[in-house]
Amino acid sequence: MSVKIGNTELKNGIFLAPMAGVSDKSFRGLCRRFGAEYTVSEMVSAKALCYEQMSKRASTETPTASLCEVRADDGPIAIQLFGSEPEFIAEAARLIESKEYKNCVSKIAPAAIDINMGCPVRKITSNGEGSALMKDPVRAASIVEATVKATSLPVTVKIRSGWDASSINAPELAKRLEAAGAAAICVHARTKEQLYFPGIDLSVIAAVKAAVNIPVIGNGDIYCAADARKMINETGCDGVMIGRGAQGNPWIFSEILADMEGKEYTPPTLAERFEVAREHLYLMLADKGERVGLAEAKKHMAWYLAGMNGAAKARDAVMRATSAEEIVAIFNRLV
Ligand SMILES: Cc1cc2nc3c(=O)[nH]c(=O)nc-3n(C[C@H](O)[C@H](O)[C@H](O)COP(=O)(O)O)c2cc1C
After folding, report:
1. Nearest residue by C-alpha to atom 13 in ligand 1
2. Most-buried pick from 27, 131, 197, 273 (CB within 10 A)?
3. Tens of pLDDT along 291-326?
């Protein structure tokens, strides 16, 4: 299975999903090491990025710039923008490609700009952003059109099946977005109303695949190689995107890759799991500083413990920990 997005060729089509508060630089790097071929940043407010250019605030007060960082060794990565106004999204894409935004530390441009048309959070949809754009296909297409004009980077879009069960419109919307210039479409096969509840509808991904000629990436409820294989077989999608299945389990990418290549997959030992968890913890501390890094790393550390003997007690201890060393000691007691 190979996928081409702009000039980026992917051999296996294995994507890490954008997850706000989860898929930061540290996590993306680990997932990439274990086989994620393409990653997507946490969603970035196009408006915030544009407004920060006019603000007189100090560098430490422009967090959006940090979310847009692309490192030389990141591999193919898309920066995901959200918003509802074509001109802001287009301008944000231009800023990211040119690296002309305030406090930019990126040495290179991303492989693509991705536009969020799937976020179900009320704060976002009430502004006409995220999945609310699925109810406004004309605006959705004009956002893609304006962004394609503003950047030479490929513009991809992440959508859901539709707003609710009575308005499944992913295939029609995908067609419009393709006509507007989208280079690929990712479909999270749930409606906005379904939020993240279990149960996806693979037939919607298949219908999108049948409707467009650009690559279609399938997304939703992939927790093992068999789930990925089922999605590919039943929908004909060109790639698979994994979100929650990678939380505390970046090895899921190795498992899917091994399956695609017909190779045996050996899950990590407990010691290997904890070694990667420890590395993840210190990467986050280095990237975000001790206080924020520790606070944000705790949920990841709890995910690494999932399913283990004594996990509940260890998870409580992790949540109460006041230092990285304390967390490492909790892991060491379990090995
Ligand atoms: C904590 C969390 C944060 C998310 N943030 C984003 C985001 O910033 N942009 C986006 O397009 N989707 C976001 N999503 C949705 C995921 O990218 C993905 O579509 C969804 O989780 C379904 O895939 P999964 O079943 O593999 O998790 C988020 C999901 C979760 C659980």
Report:
1. 19
2. 131
3. 999 999 999 999 999 999 899 999 999 999 999 999
